[in-house]
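Sequence only, no structure available. Ideas?
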Amino acid sequence: MKRRKIYKIKSYTHFDTRKVEYWRYLNNIKNPKWVERHAFYPFIHYQEEKKKFDGKELIIKPPRDIRYSAHIDRYIYEYYNDILSKKYNKYAKEKGFNQASIAYRTNLNKSNIHFSRDVFKYLNNQENAFIFVSDFSSFFDNLEHKYLKERLKELLKVDTLSKDFYKVFKSVTSYSYIEYNDILQELGLTHKGLTKLHKDRLFNIEEFRKFKKDKIHTNKKDYGMVQGSAISAVMSNIYMIRFDKIVNDLITSNNGIYRRYSDDIIIIIPNLSKAMETYNKVMQIKDSIPRLELSPDKTKCFIKKGDVISRVDLETKKVIKNNTTIDYLGFSYDGKLVKIREKTVAKYYRKMYSRINTINKWTIKTGNNIGRRKLYKQYSYLGKKTKDPKKGNFLTYVDRAQKEYGDLGKIDKQVKNSWKYMSKRLVKVTK
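Reply:
I predicted one. Tokens follow.
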């Protein structure tokens, strides 16, 4: 186990001290007896609002519930996540769906660029194909506890969960949490004020005991798992092991491919005559797993004939839209070429122009050419050269994607004029 990679010290302020150093607790975390006696702190809950631009207007998406754990609890989750991830990887190989479940994996060493490339290159090689895409509605919020527990036992090859595993399981299913806004109100702070708080912890032990009395909420339903903990992702994969196994066997027996990235799925089979039969079987498999619901808005069927993609209604067998595209993991395929989704490129330009407008304002006000270096680093080719996949800018991502897609990609062409557009909009002061 690479300790530093797993147990990364984070600076956010919580109910315990943020100076909890993993090495001081490592022996405890590895001790099942200590874990089963450990009292987990409540998560802190807030709603993350997301906005997206659809090319015409800014759309406010439904907020997403985020709950984050105390520091010592996070170390426990990371330790058990590491155990479960290794067992899950081994299980997925044994059952034959190692390449089908691709999100939150620790052994595939691939990014969304590689995953989408594999799918679209396969599809591009098919003269005819049926494509089904969808995602599961409120995925984490709907996971049934009893079913998840059974799959967890199946993975661990036990009849009964050990007390330490059960304690961790209960902490993320029957989880408790305190509202972020209640903390702000108690401390008399704004969000900005709290982020600048220099206290080691939000409350001392006595203050916390008084504060939490009427502030703790608990998930009393028999379904739903906390989203945001270090163990949530692998738990969601464990929940889906039977679905992934059965669907993957069905699709590969028809020479097709099945991929699930968290709650997003894509299925491709190169046999149009089996489209309806395959779709119905997948629906039956889905219905056999508790509380799995597909999003009606994101469930779509496509037919590829030659280099033409058409969206179809399987029941009426009517074409809804000809010459359309399939979106997957941030990329779009039109039957001939792959691009980064136009919305993503538009977002890059929109953020760049917004930064330029701010720079222009201060350039005019001060009479100096200011803010250029940071602008160039974030939005131009001058900041894209890096070997570290976690560094660089959007153009670094474009280069990597184009390299992976090769002749199938038309990705670099989407931003070829970015420097020209940047230079044209920048106000320059000549002295």
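The first helix runs from residue 3 to 6.
Hope that gets you unstuck.
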